[in-house]
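Memo to structure team: turn this sequence into structure tokens by end of day. - J.P.
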Amino acid sequence: MKKVCVTIVLGLVAVAISMQSASALPPFNKEWVAKYVEGNTNAKFVAAAGTAKCNTCHMGVSKKDHNPYGQAVKKHLTKAKYNEIKEDAEAAKKYILEGLSKAEAEKNAAGKTYGEVIKAGGIPWE
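Reply from structure team:
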């Protein structure tokens, strides 16, 4: 009985921790979609973004694994900083948009900036 209780408690703790770790992702994705997808007339880009969703920045099984574009974004957007300012919606939005703009200036393996790739209708996470 003691083992069962310990197992249940540990399971609840694991669920609580995993729920907290994803709290910053929806606002980052929301602003990314608003900036790059909404109003974009490139059907290929819009379809790819809709299919990619979280894989725009992430790859693999763990959400801690980032593709090259995600690594560029991660340099400028952190969950810790977001959590400090998330109560101020305007400051949080400004932080996210500035981080995305800074990531645009980062270069991919081909030597093009992610901003150039996106503006040309390319897929930055491929």
